[in-house]
Known about the structure:
By secondary structure, this protein is of the alpha+beta class. It has helices at residues 14-24, 26-29, 34-44, 63-66, 119-128, 136-145; strands at 53-56, 71-72, 75-76, 78-79, 90-91, 102-106, 132-133, 155-157, 161-162, 173-179, 194-200, 208-210, 212-213, 215-217. The strands form five sheets. It has a five-stranded mixed beta sheet, covered by helices on one side. Strands 1-6-14 form a three-stranded antiparallel beta sheet.
Amino acid sequence: xxxxxxxxxxxxxxxxxxxxxxELGVHGIAGLSAGELRAFAGSxxxxxxxxxxxxxxxxxxxxxxxxxxxxxxxxxxxxVTDMSDxxxxxxxxxxxxxxxxxxxxxxxxxxxxxxxxxxxxxxxxLTGRDRTPMLLTEGIAWVLQQPEVLERNHCFMTIGSRLxxxxxxxxxxxxxxxxxxxxxxxxxxxxxxxxxxWCWAGNRHTWLGFASGTARSVIPDRSEEx
Length: 226
């Protein structure tokens, strides 16, 4: 099995990503000032590479607030109607999420080589390669920075986010990002719009890879160092 998916354009530096988030108003959603976001990103620039994503903690900027900021062909993103509980999808225990409003995800990959795998099959394969699945909010952040990451027949799941039921068992739904065909409850007016939806954990889809990263970390603001 190939180690990575189709080569995608390099992510811009964290400072450039910060400007994109500020332009979209994500700092306000997260309760941060533009200066705080710029300071964090600036401290990360020196150590970041082309696969480093600037992410906002899902507790600060939930998926329901980020999805409408997505855009494709002038059409805003949306969450499917039968996923009104989207913000209850929380990180799996294997995801070491920094206790900070902002953090970095390194080694981001769309997981094209896992297309037509089920989430149940993909999760152990990812962890066996020392990778962790991407969170839904991280996936949205990635598409906000690089809309071209979503392509027809090459979209991705974000199985690091799962919903736990009252008995602590995992809900069978697994979140994903893809492009709407404008059918069913999506509505024709949403054809070609970015879409946050879900698939069953045991089902396979030829057009969905499994997004992942190698690590999550917080870079301190060096401007405060003496």
